Every structure is written in structure tokens, then in C-alpha cells.
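Protocol step 6 of 9: fold each sequence in the batch and record its C-alpha cells directly after the sequence line. For illustration, a two-sequence batch is reproduced in full.

Sequence one:
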Amino acid sequence: MTQSRIAILSVGDELVLGQIDDTNASWLARRIPALGVMAGERRTVGDDQASIAQAIVELSRTHSAVVVTGGLGPTLDDLTREALADAIALASGEPRAPLEEDPAGIAHLRKWFEEKGRVMAPLNRRQALRPPGTSLLANPNGTAPGIATCSSAPLCVFCLPGPPREMQPMFDAEVAPQIAVDGAVVLTAALHTVGLGESSLAEILGELMDRSRMPSVGTTARTGIVTIRIRAEGNAIDAQRALDATVDVCRSRVSNIIFGRDEESLESSVGALLLARGATLATAESCTGGLVSARLTDVPGSSAWFKGGFVVYANERKTEDLGVPSSVLDEFGAVSHATAVALARGALRRTTSDYAISTTGVAGPTGGSPEKPVGTVFIAIADRARAEVCSRRFQMTGSRQTIRERSTVMALAALRVALLDHPLQSLLWAESERVHVEPL
């Protein structure tokens, strides 16, 4: 191992065209650091022999090993074997050698089909081919063996099948022991925040985000949530101490907006707050169309604190299902503080919950006005114990889907603020710090 990073190369026209998501690369990028090395570059190429070969050679120049997924099937558009032979020739300067049929590979294929009671098609014999000097990797979960070059070829490449149920166990059994660095670890932590934009958070973190610093600190923003990502490398004891120390510093600077770590979601953190208070929640959604309820019920055990929700898209449903007065809709409109407050009140009354969230807005792309342009959203939180309803006006940006998603996140964030009794905490896209408050 001459370098400290592993490259990930994904092969397939369907990946290049965006027809399916590259879950293999994401899984590998998460798995590799546990072996004491870092995933370096991730690259995707289509089912083109020359492109695959060129990518293998280029990535091998700057990485200790290349992990390739896909292109090992039996059909003529599965070209990873041939491309690997081309790459070996390019790297060695020797003529390209023809592929060889591996006896163990043929035996594996025959056994596989016999056990399934099926006749092996002649085309499947392609899956037993490999470049000279390479070795096959066992695949107990499918027909396509993997291929490894590190023992004798000028490149260190591992070619794995595309189906995740075959790729993942093959990587763990065959590849991980060869690329792991003894005594080294790469540890990570993710602190999720809501309330500040990425640039504002970066200003607070300051020197912690210096790229020469170790542990490294970076931020990633998505739909109103900004995640602080921390990475520490080294021996297990020192890396853990450094990681923990940096996590503590980050928490000390922005503790009020951190809602979770690693796999904890905003909705699960809200659920935990409700559960700790023995409180329950209901929802009344217009513009989000049930997205808030969907996020809440994604949390296992949410029935302990989520009573249920109402999707009241049309005005008549707002009136008939939740008792929003027609006079409110006529005077202020469906998109207003008054309607958001009335929706939250109605959800409390109909469910006897302790809290209620309501959303109403203009998701677009049409329906806006100069007073209420597309992206105008009102979110209200009703609190039975305080006997009050707090409403905020937001001005979201983006597509219809983005506005709905951002509204969902801000609704959960507004509830979190209420549960923590932080009424003046800033929220992204809120038009001002002023909160509209009415009695319940």
C-alpha cells in the first residue's frame, strides 16, 4: 500500500444517466474509513471499455487501491473484465493479454446453476474470465466472481459485482482484509444543526474549519439542516480523544442549535423531547400535504407521542374538518397568520393533543401575489399548557418540492424551539425574529 486513500469507481450507463442512485459508492465511502484508510475520489463511468480502463489507470496513480463496482455480468455490455485487462496493459507497457477462463470460476458457476435447478447458458461462462495474473474473488451470493489484481499486476484493483447483496459481503470478506491499515482508524462524527445558514455557522466555528487542522471540521447544508462533519485519523486512542475534544468545542459554540448526532434526525429529536415531557402532538397541514406527518411517523415508536394529523388542502376542508371560520378565510386568506393559528387550534381541539403544528402557504409555481409571493409560508405551533399559539411567516425559495420540503423542516424546527422554550431562536427563511402570538 503506497498511498493512504482508496478510489471508488462505479460502472454503468444507468448510473451516468441518473436512472438509479449509486448506493454502492455511498456504502463503500462509509465503510472504508472503518478500515483505517480514507475513501478518496469517487468516479462514475458508463459501459464503455476504454473509459473504464482509463479511469482505472488514472485513479491508480493517486490512490493505493481502486475498488470497481459493476460490469461483471454475463452480457456483452458488461465490460469491466476486458477494461481491467486494458488497464493492466496500459500501466505495464506490455501488450494486452487475452482473458483466461478460470477453472474455479467455471466450477462455481456450474454449482450455482445446479443448486438452483437451472441450466447454465453459454453466455454465463464469460463470468469466469479474468486477465492473466489476476485472481477471482468468491461470490457466495451470485454468479459473478470478483477480480483482484494486487498480488502480481502493476495495479491494485478490486472489481466487485454491482448488486449490493453480492458486493457488500464480498468487500467485507475479500477486500477489507487487504486494504486495512493495522492500528489506524478514521473516526467521524456528525452534529446536525437547525436555525442558522451554513455561512453563519462557519463564522462561529472559525478556526476549527482550517483545512490544515486535524481533526478536520467541515459543514454540509441540506434543506435547512446544516451538519458539522468532524474527522479524526490516527491510532485508535489518540483519534478518539481528538474527535471527542473537537465535538465538545463545537457543542460549546453552537449547542443551542444542535439537535442530534450521527444518525439522529430532526423528527426523532422532536419525538424524544415530546416523550421526555409526556406530551403529544397533532398536525394540520395544507401546503405540506402530509409531509410533516410522514416525517414524524418515520420514527419508530412515534405512536407514543404522535396523535395524528389532518391534510386540509381545500378551504372547505379547513372549515369542515378543523373548524377554521369562513370569515377568517374570507378576510385574511388561506395563507395567513390567522389561518395558520386557526388550523393549529383546530388540531388541538380535535385530538386533545398537547401541541399542534400547522402549515399553510404558496408552494407554487403559480398562485402567488405581490403581497404573498410563491414561497410564502405560515407555520404555527399551538401549546395547550401555555394556552397560546405562535405563528411565523417564512419566505422560502426554490421549486415547489423544495418549498414543501423546507416548510416541513421549519415546522419541525419551530416545534423544537417551542419545546425548548427558545421563542426568539432564529429560523432560516423566517421573515423576522418577531413571532405572532395569540391566545389559544
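Sequence two, same batch, same settings:
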Amino acid sequence: MTAAPRAERLRDHFVGWQCRIRADAMRRRAGQPSPGMRPRVLSAAGEELAPAVTTLLVRREAESFAPEFRHLARRTHDPRDRREAALALLAERYYQHARAFSDHLTATFAPGSALAADLERQRRCILAFAQDSQRYTLPCTLRRLSPGDPRRDETWWHNALFNPQLPPDIPILAFAPRWLEATADPDLDQAR
């Protein structure tokens, strides 16, 4: 099999896996991020930069849920009501169709985060995902998202549903996997 179709299969498998584990976290873990949502962050040379960073899988621009997230966040000031509404939306509708998602991941960082600054400076990293018997190693390029970017809006409003004190100017980084260099364990070709 040539590299491009294998990379596409790997991408589609990863996005489907992410949707499944995230929907399960919403339904069974009250939204608590599972290990597969919190990859290790390594430098391009393989040095660990962080043992875990919570990521968000973002939808394609045309499928953005940012307006719905914003509406839920502004609808009530009661954190419990907001959380319950967010969990219902995420469990029932958000993760139901893997094809609605891009393959980009985002992560929020605290204001002044040294890790975010380091990643931004390096512009490349490796995200190492693991949950149960599945592993993915994704070399990524990354960049900081600017205000007004739909991925930034979706990420910020999603996280604001669970953290109403989220500062508006936090760094949000987008990770774009380089699928031709990515790996899965077990390998998809061996699973066939």
C-alpha cells in the first residue's frame, strides 16, 4: 500500500477513535478527560516536554459548534446547569459523526505558559496518545490561533462550558498531524 492511502486510513482511524473515546467520556465519565484525550507532548527529537496535555478534536469549519457552545455558556450562570447541558450536547450530538471533524487538535494553556511559548518557538512536536491497547504517535506542526479563528472560537467556548473563569486571552495552540510520519500500535496494516 502506498504512503498516501495508508496515511489517510490512519487519519480516519485516529479521528474515529477520538470521537468514540470522547463520546464515552461524556456519557460515562461526566466529561472527565480520559488518557486518550491527554497525549504526552514530546519535542521533535523525542524529549518529553509535558506528561499530558488535554486536547480538543475540532470540527471542520463548516461544522463548527462555536455558536451553540457560546449560547449554552451564556444561557445560564449556574455552573451545574451549564455543565449538564454541555455534557448532553457533547454526548448526544457532537461526537456522533467522525467525518464532521478535521484532523487538527487544539489545546489551551494558562496565560504566560512556558510550555506554550516553547512549543510555539519550536513549531513542531510529537503528540503520543495512549488508551487501553491503542497507541498513536503523531508528529505535528503547530501554531498559536489568533482571535477570530473558528478553531480558536470553538475551543474557547467548549472549554468555557466547563470553566466559566476561563480568561479570554489564553494561548490556544493548534496541532496539525503529519500523517505520512505518524504511527499506530497496533499497526493498521497488521490488524487487517
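Proceed to step 7 once all outputs are recorded. Observation for sequence two: The two ends are 12 Å apart (CA to CA).
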